[in-house]
Amino acid sequence: CTGSICIKANAQSCGECIQVAESCGWCSDEKFLSSGESKSARCDDLQSLKDRQCPEDKIENPRGAIVIDKDTPVTNRKKDSKEKLKPEEITQIQPQKLTLTLRSGEPQTFSLKFKRAEDYPIDLYYLMDLSFSMKDDLENVKNLGTDLMAEMEKITTDFRIGFGSFVEKTVMPYISTTPARLINPCTGNQNCTSPFSYKNVLKLTDKGDEFNRLVSQQQISGNLDSPEGGFDAIMQVAVCEEQIGWRNVTRLLVFSTDAGFHFAGDGKLGGIVLPNDGKCHLENNMYTMSHYYDYPSIAHLVQKLSDHNIQTIFAVTDDFQPVYKELQNLIPKSAVGTLSSNSSNVIKLIIDAYNSLSSEVILENSRLPEGLSITYKSICKNGVEGTGENGRKCSNISIGDEVSFQISVESQKCPSHGKSEVIKIKPLGFTEEVEVVLKFICDCECSAEGELNSQRCHEGNGTFECGACKCNAGRIGRLCECSKDEVRTEDLDANCRKDNGTDICSNNGDCVCGTCECKKRENPKEVYSGTYCECDNFNCDRSNNKLCGGHGVCECRKCICDANYTGSACDCSLDHSTCLAKNGQICNGRGTCECGICKCTDAKFQGPTCELCPTCPGVCAEHKDCVQCRAFDAGEKKETCERDCSYFQLITVKDSSKLPQPTDQIFPLTHCKERDANDCWFYFTYAIRNSTKEVYVVEKLECPPGPDIIPIVAGVVAGIVLIGLALLLIWKLLMIIHDRREFAKFEKEKMNAKWDTGENPIYKSAVTTVVNPKYEGK
What we know:
Elements (H helix, E strand, L loop, with lengths): L4 H4 L5 H5 L5 E4 L15 E3 H6 L7 E2 L4 E6 L22 E2 L2 E6 L5 E8 L6 E8 L5 H7 L2 H9 L6 E8 L12 H5 L14 E8 L2 H9 L13 H10 L1 H4 L5 E8 L24 E2 L2 E2 L10 H10 L2 E7 L4 H10 L3 E5 L7 H13 L2 E5 L6 E8 L5 E3 L5 E2 L7 E10 L9 E7 L6 E7 L21 E4 L2 E4 L3 E2 L5 E2 L6 H5 L14 E4 L2 E4 L9 E2 L5 E2 L5 E2 L2 E2 L4 E4 L2 E4 L3 E2 L5 E2 L17 E4 L2 E4 L18 H14 L8 H4 L4 E5 L15 E7 L5 E9 L2 E7 L10 H43 L27
Parallel strand pairs: 6-22, 8-9, 8-11, 11-14, 14-15, 39-42
Antiparallel strand pairs: 1-2, 1-3, 4-6, 5-7, 7-20, 9-10, 12-13, 16-19, 16-21, 17-18, 17-20, 21-22, 23-24, 25-26, 27-28, 29-30, 31-32, 33-34, 35-36, 37-38, 40-41, 41-42
């Protein structure tokens, strides 16, 4: 097949051929090539080699393989078991070592099993901020050793605890460097110890009483700024394994503080510019280089915590929860808990955080060699599967639960050194790891039997292997007959010019021994080909940003389209199914189907199948006038009926039950009911059968019966009488109401009337009284 990627890769040896693609093979039969064929024609896809009569035992097609070197089963162990195992005797991941033999383009997939062991040992290091604001917290931590021991016994019988403290770098402006403040950094009558960067108070021990005793002896200290130097302390705890006493078990670091943190770059404030070196600098359990090295960066801290399998629990007060939750997102296998103002809830916080961390397993791998890719698929609890980034992890794992991962490793090319590589895969926060040894198939087995400096290769200028000559350095040609220093001659170059043009090998290759050797591109799937390298498989027309529209292959800069597609970019579909309207017609009979898309010829119609007509009446309204004029000799088109309405075949039926029904037809049918000028209804159907328009119409109009006069007149008279009576009753009612109001008004005025009781001014009494003036009353 001329379009084969194997052929176009122009492979000059079996080793080059098998790296082109997984499907490529090399024919090592000496008699395989015809006269004039290029050596690269030996490289082709497997079926093509068989079709070209290459014997099956001569087809070189090495395959990859997986060998499990160490496969210790995961440990099934109960907490109450009398058998006491050392940490190194407990296995939680299986297998432990594999060897993968990889061929370019061929993925190798293996299964990895993980099971949380019961009663797994735990080392916990409590790192506490001893700045002055943590004074009340120190009191509650003094009994932490024995109390935490008692709680952890419910989880493991092998538990060790350690303690360390930190304050800040011992330089300005982080602390006051006046002599008095160096001795006692606290103000007032407070008795505080000298400031320090980090102190390892107690290495990991199984003696809770010793923890309580040493913590009780600790004194609070102080500094000037709010952020603390906790990152310096975390770095030393991570890298000083021997001084801290870490074992190869579950490692927990509890970081307790009520403040923020300094990080890389902040040291410039104190004149410290050297980056943190990530090494242990403990002398007499004190960090001695805080004044010399800057704070570590977050990325540096993440690397060291991961390298030393330490899971971090940030026990911080509520004020700094948002800051440390952001930090948690950057540090894998870490948790954040809310610490009460006096650390009284620290034990519950540690237990909850441990359960959260241990219920999730996340796989990580060491740095991959160039050209290697790895993908994960998780099969978690209850058969839940995850892919992509979720394929690396499983959550909600209880003790004793078993989960598995499908891991695929694929190589795109052989490493330049050709040697084996080693990668390691491990669950974050655990010391166990899987060692994967990678071996690469970079050459064919037949190359081991090659004949060095063979006479078959033009006077010994190459190695004859796998049925062809593999030329020595500086030699080229099918039989290594040319020297690279001699090939640039005008006579030979003329053979590499197409149609006597000026471009050698179309500027896409080199003229070697009078033959064009085409250039190879970075993408192995993009190749130049042809006698003059005039062809390629990537410079064809595109559609939707896809080469040949995704419906063809690019051969010699022209698209060879798949069936049912045409066009320069294979973007024209010959499939008319997308143009079919609901009535079964292509583009509803209103347009043409071009490249699977309707082009509507009637401007009124639109839509993907020319069925939408926003300005058109319905089918019934459209044909109403013509049906009316032809069936009943009436309507608006009565005068022009013969001219305008002969486009359909009219069939009359006696009643509507005789009309065709949709279930009886294999073509779309429309039932219509329309009204004429006399308010009579007529019924008809409209259909298109084999491009013939058929109209079935009921021969009789359905007119409403005339009105019954007597009931109408009687109703009108009765209505008038009733309305008159009603009006009289209303008038009478209103008059009664009015009279009653007037009478009530009269009565009220009568009661309010007042009569004058004085004498009539014109009245004169008939009695006259005369008094004798001389009468003295004697």
